[in-house]
Design brief:
Two copies of one chain form a homodimer. Chain A is mainly α and 132 residues long. Helices cover 68% and strands 9% of the residues of chain A. Chain A has a three-stranded antiparallel beta sheet with strand order 1-3-2. The interface between A and B is large, with 40 and 39 residues. Chain A binds a DNA duplex (30 and 30 nucleotides) through α1, α2 and α4. Chains A, B: Keywords: DNA-binding, Transcription, Transcription regulation.
DNA sequence: CTAATTTATTTACCTAGCTAAATAAATTAT
DNA sequence: ATAATTTATTTAGCTAGGTAAATAAATTAG
């Protein structure tokens, strides 16, 4: 395998693992965090809006949101279109989000702090040169 | 979440999905291919050598190699140290590997063909600037 | 030489993605 | 207005990673 792919996939796995480690203190997994963050930024969303935004398949989001609901982070309510479920952050989530965001910012700083803004931009540009 | 992480994780998932799609014609999954490739390059290896090389945890390799054995791609034999199992490619695997490698090379060319060698090198350098 | 420790693998179980197919509500075509 | 199609979500089951703990063989300490 091309070393570029190997390196990219490894780093991706490494980042996810580190992120999970960091989020342990808040009793969250990385995929749960991405959904909470999504709702934090966009406000209430349907499941479809979430999975289209995060670019994953619907069943992954169904499962993760169901888990977040049993843990008390979100509520699911029927929308005016009764096919869709609207997901909103719970009071508990809104209360805890600022502290979690702080943790995440520190994590990101530690992870890519040694790259300049130009290098980060360059990295994104090169990523986009790959197919897809 | 920092867009750099988002982009990197997305691309990583996209590559894996494309690779799986490409490997369907050989009835293989990407993780199975990485193990076969590993054995192709290094010759017979113990499970520990494989998971240390691929930088994943042991149980993932135990499972994947067991599956590869039932599918006839590899054999597991006891080593002189009876704790370890040595994994070798089957005759079927050796016969089929060249065609699979060809498929993979075409896939990689399609995936990163629009990047120059310098850009690829630069990308790797930037990846390594991230922590880990 | 026996006891304690280390090492290699496995088992059980978790998150996290995927596809395919089922269900139910809404929309479109006739 | 009914039938056919589309859309939103869910269910079932797969690969693929992770951790924690069990087992068995090898090694080290006493």
């Amino acid at each position: 395998m091309n070393p570029l792919f190997h390196a990219l996939l490894q780093k991706s796995r490494y980042i996810t693992n580190c992120l999970n480690e960091t989020l342990k203190q808040h009793n969250l997994y990385s995929s749960q965090w991405t959904i909470l963050f999504c709702l934090h930024v966009h406000g209430p969303m349907t499941l479809t809006q979430i999975w289209k935004y995060l670019n994953v398949e619907a069943p992954s989001i169904t499962r993760a949101v169901a888990r977040l609901e049993t843990l008390g982070w979100v509520q699911r309510v029927d929308g005016p279109d009764k096919r869709e479920k609207i997901v909103t952050l719970s009071a508990m989530a809104k209360e805890k989000l600022p502290a979690i965001e702080k943790t995440i910012l520190a994590f990101e700083e530690e992870m890519i702090g040694s790259m300049t803004i130009e290098e980060q931009q360059q990295f994104m540009n090169l990523l986009q040169k790959m197919k897809g």
